[in-house]
Fold this protein.
Amino acid sequence: MNMIINGQDLPASDGETINVINPYNNEWIDSVPSATKEDIDTAVKAARSAWRSWKKTPVYKRVDLVNNFLTLVEQNRTGLGKLLSLESGKTITEAAVEMNNIFTAWHAFSEKAKHLYDTVIPAGLEYNHDNNIVLTKREPLGVVACIIPFNFPCNLFNQKVAPAILAGNCVIVKPATDNPLTICRLVSLMREAGFPDGVVQVVTGRGSSIGQYLSTHKGIDAITLTGSTTVGIEVAEKAAPSLKRIALELGGNDAFIVLEDADLELTVNEAVNARFFNAGQICCAPKRFLIHRSHYEAFVTAVTERIASFTFGDPLNPDTKVGTVISERAARIVEDQIQLTVQQGGRIVLGGSREGAFVALTVIRDVPFSADVMHDMEIFGPVMPIAAFDSADEVLELANATIYGLGGSVFTRDMKKAMKFTDNLECGSVVINGSSYFRSFEMPFGGFKYSGIGSEGVLSTFDELTQLKCITLKGIGNY
Ligand code: NAP
Ligand code: MG
C-alpha cells in the first residue's frame, strides 16, 4: 500500500519499503513506503498550500465530506476490520468494535464542530473600557501532524484527525510502523470522499526517522501524538525550538483499588474484562491490582478461574477471545517484565509463558510494593500483577508512587470513601466502581505527570487544535 501525498498514491522517493507482518502467523501481508525527508517536505508543502482554502471552507461543507467518508467506511467495514485484525493480532471482534467507533466519533466531532460558538465580551466590564467590545474567534492552527500508536489505530485516528480537519487544519498522519495499513486505507477513503488534495495525507516510515523529522519541521504547527512516554518526551524536545503546539497522550500504570466494602463479583468482572481486552495493550487498562487483604484470596482465585477459560487462537476466528500482542518483539519485552516481577518476589499462578507473539494470560500474586511493576514499569500485555494492602492510606500512597498519572479506579460501596480517593489520586481520570479503561469519545481524556500534556475528546480537542483570536471594536460601546 502506498502513501497519500497531495492526493496521489505515492511510494517513497527512493523506493524503500517496510514489510507489514501478521503477528499471528508471521506471514507477509503487504509493504508500505519508508518515507524520505523529501517525501515529508512534499507533504508539508502540499498541506500548507491546501490550508489556504481549507481554513475558509465552511464547516457544513467539511461535515458533508465527513458524511461521504462515513458512507465509504460503511461499505468497506468488513474488509477494514479484517485488515486491522490481520496486521495487529487483535481479534476480529475487537476490530469490529473499533470499526463501530469510527461512526460514533466522527458524528460526535461533526456535531460539536457545528456548534462551536464564539464569545462577545461586552463593553463596560472593566475600568477604562466603557466603550470597547471584544469578540473572540477560534482559528485553526495550520498543519497538524497526527502520530498514531499501534494499539487502537482507528480510535486514535478518530480522536485526532476528525477534530483537526473539522476545525480547519490540514493533517499529515503518521501511523505506527507495525500496523499502518488500515490507516492508509482510511486516508484513501477520505480522498475518495472528496477531501481536497493536501487536506489529509498519510506518510509511512519509522518514528525514529520521519517521526523525528515531523517533530522538528518548521512547516508543521502542531504535533498530536499518542504513544509511550519516552517518545513523547523526545517529540516535546524536538518540537520546542519551533514552538509547536504539542498534545501528548502517553503511557500509564493505573491502579485498580479494591477496598474492604467492595462488591467482589463486580471487581472480578471489571478486572478481567479491562486487563485482557486487546491482549492487555491499552494505555488506561488497570495495570496494578491492589486488593484489600480481606478480599485477596477470593479475588485471586476468581480472576484466575475466569481467565483460565479464555480461548487463544486465530484472531480472525470469532470464537477467539484473546489474540497476539503486536509483535514477537513486544511479546519478548512482556516476557522479560514477567520474569523481573517474579525475581522481585511475585508468584505466578497462571500463565507466565510466551509462544511467538502470544503471551499466555498471566496472573502474578504476592507482588511486593517494592517491585518495579508497582511503580514505573508499564506492562503492555495480558498480565495481572496483584498485591494485598491493609489500609486506605497505605494504598493511596502506593497508587501515587509512580511517574504516571493517566487513570485509576476504586471499588467501594461508600461514596465518601470513593470521593476521598478521587480527590487524592494524582491522575487525569478516576472511575468509581468500574475499571479505568472506561473511555468515551465525549469525555476529556488526558494524563497528569508523565502520562501527557493536554486532553483529547469531543469536549476538549477543539481547544487543543485551535487558537483564539481577539477582535476589538474600539469606542463603539454605549456606556
Ligand atoms: P510508541 O512506540 O511511542 O509509538 C507511537 C508512535 O510514535 C508510532 O507511530 C511511532 O512510530 C512513533 N514514534 C516512535 N519514535 C518516535 C520519535 N522519536 N519521534 C516521533 N514519533 C515517534 O508507542 P506504541 O508502542 O505504539 O504504543 C504504546 C504506548 O502508547 C504505551 O505506552 C501506551 O500506554 C501509550 N498509549 C497511550 C494512550 C493515551 O491516550 N494516553 C493511548 C494508547 C497508547 P513507529 O511505529 O514507527 O515506531
Ligand atoms: Mg513501538
Observations:
- The mean pLDDT is 97.
- DSSP finds 14 helices and 24 strands in the chain.
